[in-house]
Amino acid sequence: MQKFVDLHKRNLLSGLLILVFVWSLFSVNWGPDLFHSGGKHTILQMVKSFFQPDLSPEILQLAVTSAWRTLAYAVTGMTLAILLAVVLGVLASGILYNGKQRIWVKSSLRGLLGFMRAIHELVWAWLFVAAVGLSPFAAIFAIAIPYGGILGRIFADMLNDVKPEPIQALQSNGASRLQLLCYGYFPLAAADMISYTMYRFECAIRSSAIMSFVGLGGLGYQIHLSLDDLKYHEVWTFIFFLIGLVILVDLWSRFLRKRLVS
Amino acid sequence: MNAQVEHETKTTRRRPGFIAFSFLLAVTLIAASWIYILFVEEASLFALFSEKNLEHTREFLFSMMGIGVEEPAFFSKESWMNALRLTYETLVMSILAIGFSVIGMVLTVIPASANYADGTLMLAKKWYSRLVYGVIRILYVFSRAVPELIWAMLIIFIFKPGILPGAVALALHNFGILGKLCAEVIEDLDMRPIRSLASSGAGKTQILIYGIIPMVMPKFITYILYRWEVIIRTTIVVGFVGAGGLGQQFKLSMSWFHYTEVTLLLISYFILVVLSDFISEMLRKAVQ
């Protein structure tokens, strides 16, 4: 009987979600007004240049340097994010202290982590650029804050999910809390933490590419410039470089994850 | 037996190798990137904290908080109404986006799973299923490797500004992610119920409806809701290039230096994100 009710709840929910989507369709003004007058022609041009990306040496060189810059912003941003996440994550997991203040510290830090990741990295970047001007640090901080928030929360969860037996064994041998952290929690959670960080690193590359939107260099910046000049051939070259970069990182993290988990 | 032992020692010998290599690669990357940022781009952290910059930052923060500003936007009812309307628009955009990407995912996910391609899922194999599998997987990789904002930049050339181009751009990116996640769900399916259905004479459609769909449904809904949360966060970004909603207004207010309006928009955005996280978590609990 319980199973029957559950099944229906699920179907009911799916039906509800579909209804919400159908209702959202009505808020679009469907009609010929939706497209630009030259829209069809533009699609054709874009598709055509997809098969003939601009492979001239200057563009390739530009693409390589921009790809490196995008990678460098992502890596530096992630370094800071990992530092932030380890510190805040350990504190937010509440394994370093107990007693009354524990719940208070835990929930306020989790709130802080939630706030950091609630705001999209590009919004952070824009605010930084408006506040401190164009500097690579605007991009680095803009990546570090939301990624630090996500990683921090996940790290805290992973540390809390560590199997209790090894920790108790250490505890009964008189290990201090800091020793518990270094010899108990970290080694046990390391594989999960690293694989999640690698997954996020792939996302950070994409984020770093769009940082260019607020004026910071990289692949996205070149895509933006080429689009403004309507040079679709170049646009695709840069997009292919971005895809290549993402795939490389994806492959790396996939191999590493396999090795770590098995 | 002997072969197995040999295999095990081989893998244990190879395992630290790759991990050590990854570690070295990571250290090199981190060092090279920081050197590049600090010495080639000559970004100086101290320059950020110069007198002039601090003054500028303080001014910016004060004007965001509405200090010294006549009629800050968050005290005017009109601005609030406008922000609420934009929030609603953003919400609709996110629902359209997730809807489109789910439609795309549902249409492609079964041929995109490896166990369908090699014929173990439906217990039937066609000569072209390997090919279709490859093509769809390449499509997934392609669509998810390109960030939403870049899709939006391309699409805005085709559609007129509004919530539809934003929704399409978000859908294109999330189509690849949802497709990959959901294909993995199908690949990890427990095959026994399907085999038992097939052995009692169920046809292909019956296997699909009574075997596969009920098993994958909860996971699919979980992933869809999780991606919807991410989409809500990203709607503001596609708005920057003219795809409507809070993002478009954010960009306009930023370029007109109406910083109190920016604050108001950020508050609405934050409320929307928190609310959608809450709703999605509630629904996900209901599914499980």
Your description of this structure?
- The complex is a heterodimer of chains A (262) and B (288).
- Chain A has 262 residues and is mainly alpha-helical.
- Chain A has a single domain (56-261), classed as MetI-like fold, CATH 1.10.3720.10.
- Chain A contains ten helices and no strands.
- The radius of gyration of chain A is 24 Å and the shape is globular.
- The model of chain B is unreliable at 1-6 and 8-12 (pLDDT under 50).
- Chain B has two domains: 2-62; 75-287, Orthogonal Bundle (MetI-like fold).
- Chain B is globular.
- Chain B has helices at 2-40, 45-48, 51-65, 77-108, 114-117, 129-145, 148-155, 163-187, 192-199, 204-239, 245-255, 259-287.
- With 288 residues, chain B is mainly alpha-helical.
- Chains A and B meet through helix 1, helix 2, helix 3, helix 4 and helix 5 of A and helix 1, helix 2, helix 3, helix 4 and helix 6 of B.
Mean pLDDT of chain A: 85
Uncertain residue segments of chain A: none
Characterize the main sheet of chain A.
none
Topology as H/E string of chain B?
HHHHHHHHHHHH
State the share of residues found in helices of chain B, binned by percent: over 70%
Strand tally of chain A, please?
A: 0
- The separation of the N and C termini of chain A measures 40 Å
Based on CA atoms alone, the radius of gyration of chain A comes out at 24 Å
Low-confidence stretches of chain B: 1-6, 8-12
Instruction: Classify the fold: give the CATH topology of the largest domain in chain B.
Output: MetI-like fold
> Count the helices of chain A. How many?
10
Give the helix/strand class of chain B. mainly alpha
